[in-house]
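U., I forgot to send this yesterday:
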Amino acid sequence: LLNDAAKRIRISLQREDNDDENHQAANVPDGGLQSLYPEEKQSQEAQIVERITRTAIALDKGNIAVNTAFELRLLRCAPPSCSYIILKDLCLAVRGISLRVLTASQISLSNGHYPSNYSEIAEALDDCAELLRKNEPVGEHERDHDDDTENLTNDGTNILRDPEDPFLLKPMIKHLKKVIVIWLDEIGPADRSTTKYCSEQSRKTMKLNALPWLIKIIGCFIPLFFVIPKALLKLETWTKLFDPFSNHGAKAVWVIKFAVGSTALFSMTVFWDAYKNWDLITNDTPASHFQAWVIISFHLTTTQSTEGTVKKGLLRLLATLSAGLSAFLCIAACNGNPYGTVAWLTLTTPIPIYLATERGFAARVGLSKDYGYLYQCFVFTQAIIVMYYRDEEGTTRNELVLNRIVANCIGITMAILMSLIPLNVWGGDPRIALNIVQIQKEALAKILHVLKECGADSLETNQSNEEYINLVAEAESSKEASSTPLFVEANDLLADSCKFSKFPLFRADPKLNAELGVLSIYDSAITTLADSAKRIISKDEAKDFFGPGMPLHNDLLTLLEAIEKDEYDISRDEENDTAKKYDLIGPPLVIEYVHFVVKKLFQHEDNLLNIKYGYGQLPQKNHTEVNSLLDSDLGTPLL
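Result:
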């Protein structure tokens, strides 16, 4: 990810330096951008943006670090500290600077200026990547001992206005290096001389390592006793069920359909004599395996989206039929010979596992998310039938294979039928992404209104800078709290709907995947904008630029009007663009930044409105949230 961010900077610098040339070689040590013609450069640039976006989503909130809490290395008796917390900081630092680089490059495209000294930033990013590759503690002479305290105020806000670093990448590089040094020290050899086996420090560290897992286990029960009852008592919870722009109604129907399907299968077992009597007679008590297989296959086939359920069901049907045939042939050929049975299973298991494994680095993660269910189901279905035949005396081959196949098919068919009943939860539905856009617009509107009020600073408001900064922080945190779960849900549903991608029906539009990635970039850009707004307020620059009659006052009002009317003039009048008449640092850069983000949000909102899903329907545009917020005087409720 750091190497990709460095390449992205070099591409921007090349575009700045070689606008009139057909091609230009970039002598990068890793050879990633050598001798690229314009069309090849564009392709390379698109690939880099895609990789940065995808990886940034994976590193969001540093959640990937929690999964390493029980690594074998951390189970030693004397770890110096809880390293997954440090790894989380590292993930966030790498993600933050990569998205900042991406945003800076995008903005430079719109204003035509990219700082030439950012080649040093690219080199520093490559150096950081090399440190992580070496995976060795950093020597004393390589550590950064610079003291930044002289450049900071008491609250840690950088007060320097560096025209050579308008996007404040240098402070982020310094922070990244510090985190890398801490991480490399942490994963180095354990110092047994200072920390004894099973000492108090070691026990404390092991408790910290176990904490995220305990939270996950306990967290499963908290909603049952606290969150769900509280939500059920709120009127807002019930009104959301009928909101056409949310997914709450469809998800409620999904729960009902899942319950109805399970109940129907249980009822068939109890009340339908012809069904409940058709069973494999075994020595097991008290339940019959036939009905158990039906219920299990129904539950395992049902996923969170309609597309995912249909495709997973088809994969499981194919796997069940082929596994039943293979098990039938195994039983017939081996005729009870244990050595032949082991040999058959040994030969037939590695082949589907190999076919289900992705190529490259993804092979280390697990089976293919696209078609892995097919081969996984084949392996355990075949093994269950073969081993069950050996363990149960008096069971005929034909009866066993037929029961297993029919039971699975009944459960799978029920799951597919239930998923197709309206209302559907479509993984390819762009409504969640559209709601994310609305939340981002709302956050921008709040930040701009705070700058407007701070610039006016009327006697009626009479707010201190600290209160204005808190309002910006509140707008940013509200955006994070609202958009983060939606990003998780949208990506989860989309990944589920993309199973069995070669199936000609129920395909999710690949543009939705790209749009979600781009929105995550602008989500980070709004966070950066909030930080910039807080710096402007802390330095009392709002009155000089955003107050009535000041240079950027009209630009601020234009942006607020664009969000209020839900319309943005893409073709801005460059001659009347006040922000570009100043050096793009401080408030002018913020205005240019906001223009860029707002323009892109409107463009991507139009893209989302043209994405088809389900049976070919298009989503509707939601005008309510932002407009209801802006129809009233935003200054009053905020201030």
